[in-house]
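Table S7 (text form). Paired inputs.
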Amino acid sequence: MLETSPRPQSQTYVELIRFLIQPLLERSDSLRVHAEVNGAKVWLRVAIAPMDRGKVFGKGGKTIQTIRTVLHAAAKNLGHSLTLELYEAGRN
């Protein structure tokens, strides 16, 4: 369960993304995360280095699907619906 605290909920989502994705990356410094919480909707935009794409997606997309499942469960626990978008660093 994500705890609710005085810090903005967008920061909670950023921390969760970093916790889930950063250990998978060769270039962890290239990870960029933007979280926007607007009422009950959450948009997460994550940029990773092209060389880390395979590690984040995993074989058959299983790793990214697991990450999405964890994020959706956390969002649901807070009463949010969540959209996750992934990009290669340096692209919009």
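Next pair, protein 2 of 2.
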Amino acid sequence: MSPIRRALKSLLLVGLAVGLAGASSEAYAQGRPPPTGGSSLVAPTASLPAKVSIDTMVVHATNAHSQVDSRLASMLPHLQHLSYTGYSVLDSRRDELSPGGEASFTVAGDRRVTVQLIERDGTQARIRVGMYSGSRRLLDTTVSIHRNKSFIVAGPEYEGGVLMLPMTARY
């Protein structure tokens, strides 16, 4: 397995860690008890905001330098486990999406990213992320991001490293 493929596999695992780490303990710390047996803490759809704010960063992970963009400070504990030494934020954006809504934008390397909000409830948002180079699909995945939490989606190789898409669902 090539070093890039190992790194991409590690990034996917980091995405799971960032997306899932501490969800129950933080919910409890905010005054909500952790989920128990048969009770459901999912808020009714009517009480949820109409739109979810999806914050997406486009990050170049590389070994060409050891600088880490200050906008990634909250993710640094997760990034330190990867095989890269430097992380540069190339772009960031915020999209306000209703369920079923989609945003599309261009990223480094002349690639196009699509972000679609499939659904959301009181605890998480399901988001489909696609990345394309021309008509070729490079990435097509659906992730669940805990409410007001982040998830890192690993992308393709780029200039000696990889592109990563840290995403946060706020609502």
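The two ends are 39 Å apart (CA to CA).
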